[in-house]
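Hey, can you fold this one?
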Amino acid sequence: MTQHAPLIIDIAGTALTKADRRRLKHPLTGGIILFGRNWKDRRELSELCLEIKDIREDLLICVDHEGGRVQRFRTDGFTHLPPMRELGTLWIKDQLAATNAATACGYVLGAELRASGVDFSFTPVLDLDYGESSVIGDRAFGRDPRVVTLLAKSLMHGLLQAGVANCGKHFPGHGFVKADSHTDIPVDNRSLKAILADDAAPYQWLNTTLSSVMPAHVIYPKVDARPAGFSSQWLNFILRSQLGFGGAIFSDDLSMAGARLIDGKEVSYTEAGVTALNAGCDMVLLCNQSVGEGQPVDELLDGMSEALLKGQWEAMEASELRRLALLPQGRAFGWNELMVQPAYMHALGLIP
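Sure. Predicted structure:
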């Protein structure tokens, strides 16, 4: 059986420490997520990614690189990508130009990451912009789920041209609630029928296109008392069975406030991780806990290992195959080679 490596962790700096190497060698570690603090310049980023792949070639190197305010690498040649709302604004003027620009954004985003050694970005945002959520805001393409679907599909086409998988987030929708799940536990009191007709609709329309999905740390009490990322009802019954999604499911960051309260009680990272995997997640993220000694990361690695031995969660071969399917496809251009590629130069001219 293929070893299931469901944990996506982070590192504190721009190079690997001895502790980082030990954690990345752990059999339950499936990948790493990079942040702004891991960025100094392209050369150091490329060296860091090579170091990671030297430890294990199958480790998935991830980043939140959407465009607008959520773009971890912004200097040393990286293109400043627009917030997705700009593509939604362009749609109002010229729908076909907007879909073409979205494909160009996806290609440039994916190709620049791959040229630097990064495998995967948690994009696109499929949340709808109700004008209420500060954490979503201009990260969303717009309010209409049909427009969001077509622009996201076009962006994912560009990512695919660069050999990069995609991640729709935050299922079934984070745009309706004001609260930020990084610091609060948002509650969306709408009915399942209302959510499926609107916010969750893109997930069904994109079920042949989405490589992965990240659920929201939001509670929808009319459906389940647990946040969506810890709910088998949302992940297995609705997302997989009802909406027909067959790709990988990532939990959102287990260190966020929205992940720390399950069934009315505060839980440890390990308890949150076990609950997420048992609910239907294939992988779980723990972010920003490696700074300093990184004790929470070690606690999660040890705790999840112990929980596996005790049978509290089951290693799933299907989950591991879904993780491996997110690794890039095809050859990546080196940075200098990419800069003179006709397709890349053409795409740059289409970005709003």
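The chain has a mean pLDDT of 95. Let me know if you want another pass with a different chain boundary.
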